[in-house]
Amino acid sequence: MSSPKVTGISPKEGPPRTKLTIRGENLGCNQSDLLSVKICGIECLIYSEWITPQKIITKSPNCMETGPVIITTESGGTGTSMIQFKALEQSIGLTTPSGVWIDEQNIFPFDSSTTALVIPNNDGSSHTKSMPMLKQQQNDILSESFNPSMYLVENHKNSSFEQLKKEYRIQFEKNQSEPKNTLDSNTFLKANIVSIMDCLNALNALYLSFKKDRQEFGSDLTVKIDEYIKSANEEAHAIFDNIISRKDDADSMRNALNVLQRYRFLFNLPSNIDKSMQRKDYDVVINDFFRAKNLFSDSSVNVFRKVFLEVEQRIQSFILTLRELFKQCANNLEDNNIDELKKLIKYLSLLEENSDPAWDAILLIKQSLFDKINQCRQQYLSSSEVTNDSKTSSPSTNNQDNPDQDNNPQKPPQVLFIDKTSKLFDRLFMDLFRLGCAYLNGDLYNKNSIEDLKRKREIFEKDLLTQSIKLLCNEYRNVLLPEANNFNYHTTSTNPTLKDHMDQDFVLWLPYCLRTAVQCYSNLLKLDFNLIHIQNSGLLKPIQTFIFDLRLYTLTCLFTHKSNDVKNLYKKEVWNIQFDDIYGVRTNLPLQFETKVIEILQLIRDSVIQIRTADEMDIFTQINVKGLIKQLIQNLINSFLYALERSAANPLSEQNRNITDDNRSLIVLCNCSYTASYVLPKLYEIFEKYGYPDMTQVIQLTQKKFKDLENKLLDSFIERKRDDVIGGIETSMRFFDENWFQEKEMPKDVSYYIKETILNLIYVQSEIYKITPQLVYKTMLEILMATIIEIERLCTSYSKQLSDAARIQMLVDINAIELVFRKTGQEFHQQLQPRIDNCRDLVCQISDIQDQTIRKLIDDVTNRFCQSMRLQISCFNFNLDNGNIINLMN
Questions:
Q1: Distance between CA atoms of 267 and 248, rounded to whole angstroms?
Q2: What confidence score (pLDDT) does residue 583 get?
Q3: How far is 117 from 725, CA to CA, in rounded Å?
Q4: Which of 114, 235, 335, 607 could form a disulfide with 511 if both were Cys (CB 3.0 to 4.6 A apart)?
Q5: Compositional bias (Polar residues) spans (predicted)?
Q6: pTM, entire model
């Protein structure tokens, strides 16, 4: 610190004990740093009061000198002012108490060097001439002791003798010409007649008064005067003795007051300590105590020892108060009062020599952290019991993604616990770390040796920091990852372990909890552990492992939750039909599935994958995570497969009552085709966009499952329609005549069952074409094949019982079927023709074929049938040249 520098004194002069204000720079750090204050060479430290490093207040000394102000401090040395202080004498008046005698002769000085004399002139006037009472110099021409030689030497030493003679003659002539004044008695009386008369009157009055007094008091007039003088003398001596006694008392009182004034700091210290404690001016208390300790701790004066003992008792009470405040402050650091705690540590370190309050504070903060986290856990358990009885509604995505809604009443107890615990840990652990760094680096009034610091550094790392982080991770795991050791991430969506551990209302809050844990970990990374020579890699390993497990758990729960949501999509199927030129009729269900998948992928990307610190690696780079993600996505897609399969049984609304069960099967079939051909490839692109592992195999497997479901639904539909068509053929044969096979009348028209079968086939075709035109070819081929097989079976069954007319009727019916099926196209006809020929062979005889009459009859009836049902027959033209239909069929 620089030496003191005095720049101003106010006032610059004054009598003793004048209050002085000294201003300057570097005038000391505190009162104890001030060693000396000298004014005019006299020490004034006892009167000095240190205010600030730029201001000191003191009193001027008792002297009559002028001198500089010299300031001496322990930290800066000695500094002398350039300004002088002038000490004035204290004026003493008539009423000013004084302990010295005053010479009263010089109080009323007068000038008696001259007197006046009235001298009469020749013309009768008079003039006053001042007569000097002291002798003048000898060269004074008017002096009685005038010496001409001296006059000439001093005034005319450079004049010649001729000049002197000439001057002498001039002066002589002038003297002869002046009239001479005579001072006789008559002239004097005339000139002073008034004064002389006044004197005579005064003498006469004095004589008369003397004569009167003599007659009244006797001839001896001085007796009473002598008595009065003696009485006055005695009274004067009595007054003098009284004054001397009072002076002694005043001196004693003055000395006592000087002692009290000089040591008033000590006598007022007990009360000042109480006042400062009430004002919480703890620095003042400690500074005053150490100042008094330095001055009076070894004093042999009983009064000082007694007062200082009382001061020490007050300080002991003060230490107890500081200890109580110290504990309260260490246990309530969440109020951001770490600076207050450091002040208390400083005070206790100064007052208690054998204590280590800084280390005590570190242990108290650690214990406070553990206790408060335990309180949070108890509150969580209590709130969980209440929540189990009445669960709150599930939060929306917007609410759970908003971290500012700390007091949201919809938050589950787990989230409230994570919020409160994380904030508590951030504050207390940061304070614990900063306080520990300051202590171990010797910045916090540390009195330990190097060995003690090394031992406490190990304790601080292992027992304080590591245990605190492990406690936080364990509490996180107990709440967010229950029974984590038994939990297997590589599970399917139907695994009961995952369902048991996953609360549907809580799943959507897992990203928020993950973000909170990552934020806590980021705050720990900001701490400079190198300050205390600790490697943070091993220290932060537990929370790194927990974040990784929580990230995978969140991924699993979100995908599983979304899979369950997708499974329930069939309940939202309202059969809002949309027409597609490529895929036929479909509903919004595949697009809803696509939307939900995109939502969960965006949520996972924003809230799980991208929420990480700089030192964390991408979880998709790990092989086990890749397998888990693929399985979860496959389960998600399979959930929609389940929803599609269940959607066919979903009840219809009033406006969709015209949609039959078979229509719904075809619509579901179209949804499967649309999902496999359009939605899944689009999802594959989204997976690549978001950086997911290669999903080629997953998409291929799920596409195959959708194709399998499509084939399953199609086979079921074909089976139902085939049964509807062929199930009524034999019944229709017997509808008009049970013994139709014994008919004797030649046929005039195609049989009713043939027409009914054709109409049934047209109805099936129209139903398929209305929903999914691309399936007409494949579906109708199997139904037509089943129809001709059924007719073949009936021909086989009745061929031996047929009459000739019935046989011809059967040939007409077979020809009609052949003509109708020929309209389906060459490819269809080639597959159906062998069955038709077989039917004809079973019924026909060689004579029937060779008989022209029968042949003509068959042709005529067949032609009339074709003419009358040409519109129905045209429905079997499946337009096989349409390339799109052929491709979709394949």
A1: 26
A2: 65
A3: 180
A4: 607
A5: 384-397
A6: 0.59
E strand or H helix at 589, and its extent? helix 589-604
From CA 257, how far away is CA 251, in angstroms rounded?
A: 10
- CA-based nearest residue to 635, from 688, 578, 567: 567
Q: Which residues lie closer than 8 Å to 742 by C-beta, 6 or more apart?
A: 801, 803, 806
Average pLDDT over residues 746-769: 82
H helix intervals, 408-449: 413-440
What's residue 253's pLDDT? 86
CB-based contact 498:558 (threshold 8 Å): no
1-90, CATH topology level:
Immunoglobulin-like (2.60.40)
Tell me the Ramachandran region of residue 691: left when phi exceeds 0, alpha when psi lies from -120 to 50, beta otherwise.
Answer: left
pLDDT of residue 334: 60
On whether the CB atoms of residues 328 and 317 are closer than 8 A, the answer is no
Asked if residue 273 lies in contact with residue 314, where contact means CB atoms within 8 angstroms, the answer is yes
The sign one gets for the Cα dihedral 706, 712, 717, 722 is positive
Six-digit token string for 881 = 């040249």
Helix (H, G, I), strand (E, B) or coil at 14: strand
Rounded Cα gap, residues 23 and 25, in angstroms:
7
CB half-sphere exposure, 300, CA atoms < 13 A: 0
Helix (H, G, I), strand (E, B) or coil at 62: coil
Q: What is the pLDDT of residue 58?
A: 92
Helix ranges, 338-394 (H): 338-351, 357-389
DSSP 22: E
DSSP 463: I
Contacts of 636 (CB under 8 A, 6+ apart): 493, 559, 562, 563, 566, 597, 600
CB atoms within 10 A of CB 280: 10
CA–CA separation, 872 vs 762, rounded Å? 7
Q: What pLDDT shows up at residue 751?
A: 81
Q: What is the DSSP letter of 571?
A: G
CB atoms within 10 A of CB 225: 10
CA distances from 507 to 496, 501, 555, 640, 690 (A): 16, 10, 10, 20, 22
- CA 664 vs. chain centroid, Å, equals 58
**∠ at Cα 859 (858, 863), nearest 5°?**
120
- How far is residue 540 from each of residues 343, 513, 611, 780, measured CA to CA in Å? 31, 18, 18, 69
Distance of CA 814 to the CA centre of its chain: 91
Roughly what angle, to the nearest 10 degrees, separates helices 776-798 and 826-843? 10
Q: How far is CA 783 from the centre of its chain?
A: 74
Quote the tokens at residue 663. Answer: 């229509």
Residue among 659, 654, 680, 652 at smallest CA distance from 585: 659
CA gap 326, 435 in Å, rounded: 14
Report the pLDDT averaged over residues 582-603. 83
Separation between Cα atoms, residue 343 and residue 501, nearest integer Å: 49
**Per-position b or e across 101-122, b if 16+ CB within 10 A of its CB:** eeeeeeeeeeeeeeeeeeebee
Contacts of 111 (CB under 8 A, 6+ apart): none
Strand partners, 67: 85
d(CA 164, CA 183): 33
In whole angstroms, what is the distance from residue 764 CA to residue 753 CA? 16
CA distance 520 to 518: 5
114 φ, ψ to 5°? -135, 160
Per-residue pLDDT band at 312 (split at 50, 70, 90): confident
Query: Which residues are 131's β-sheet partners?
Result: 115
Domain spans of the chain? Answer: 1-90, 487-509+528-709, 727-889
Reply yes or no: is the peptide bond before residue 148 cis, omega within 30 of 0.
no
Own/partner contacts of 592-596, CB < 8 Å, gap of 24 or more, are: 593/566, 593/569, 593/640, 593/643, 593/675, 593/679, 594/679, 594/682, 594/683, 596/562, 596/565, 596/566, 596/569
Q: Per-residue confidence at 863, pLDDT binned at 50, 70, 90?
A: confident
